[in-house]
Design a protein that fits this description.
Elements (H helix, E strand, L loop, with lengths): L4 H23 L6 E2 L1 H4 L11 E3 L9 E2 L15 H35 L11 H22 L1 H19 L9 E6 L7 E6 L3
Antiparallel strand pairs: 1-2, 2-3, 4-5
Helix pairs in contact: 3-4, 3-5
Length: 199
């Protein structure tokens, strides 16, 4: 049964709009989280400053900070338990790092306070000073162990999220890379839709 030409045209236009919206969605950035290139290459014992990332679907250079504990990344990982677990490991390591800094600064403060104790000649090697100095040195060494894998926990959280998205997303090769709409040169003159794929 043939559809009337007006119905055919409206049906074709509706289909073209639906496909155009699908193609526009396909042209958006990937549904994965991307790290700033320098942050993606951080290795063991790397820098401990904040990570920067592009949220899913965004392109360009507008990277945003994940926060000290990665808290700004957490909403994007909400449906991925493995990624959240890795992010929790990252937060734990950053908490240890902060506690270790507090211990180091405290030990240094105690040592300095003992050196310049009021009404006493400055001393640099009393028993309490040696203890405070030992705690400070121990804290610095502990920092090396704490920081060794901290960055990798964050990177693994992003990798787990991206791996989960790649398992559930439509394969990229099925999405059209180009879209065109024109008029059919035939007797009906109805709209014609052209799709193209880049292999």
């Amino acid at each position: 049964m043939m559809l009337p030409s007006k119905t055919w045209r409206w049906t074709s236009i509706a289909a073209a709009v639906a496909i155009a919206s699908f193609a526009a969605h396909a042209q958006q950035g990937p549904a994965t989280i991307r790290l700033l290139p320098e942050d993606a290459q951080r290795g063991f014992n790397g820098h401990q400053h904040n990570f920067y990332f592009l949220p899913p679907g965004q392109t360009g250079e507008n990277y945003q900070s994940a926060g000290f504990f990665g808290q700004k990344l957490r909403p994007y990982l909400a449906d991925n338990t493995e990624a959240l677990s890795r992010l929790d490991d990252y937060r734990r390591q950053k908490t240890f790092f902060l506690l270790d800094r507090v211990v180091a600064v405290g030990a240094l403060g105690v040592y300095g306070g003992l050196v310049f104790e009021k009404d006493k000649f400055p001393q640099y090697a009393s028993t309490p000073q040696l203890v405070a100095g030992g705690v400070f040195v121990g804290s610095i060494l502990t920092t090396l162990f704490i920081n060794r894998n901290t960055n990798s926990h964050f990177q693994h959280a992003v990798e787990a999220y991206n791996a989960g998205k790649s398992r559930t997303s439509v394969p990229g090769q099925l999405r059209p890379s180009t879209l065109g709409v024109g008029l059919n040169p035939g007797p009906g003159g109805g709209p014609t839709l052209a799709l193209g794929w880049r292999w």
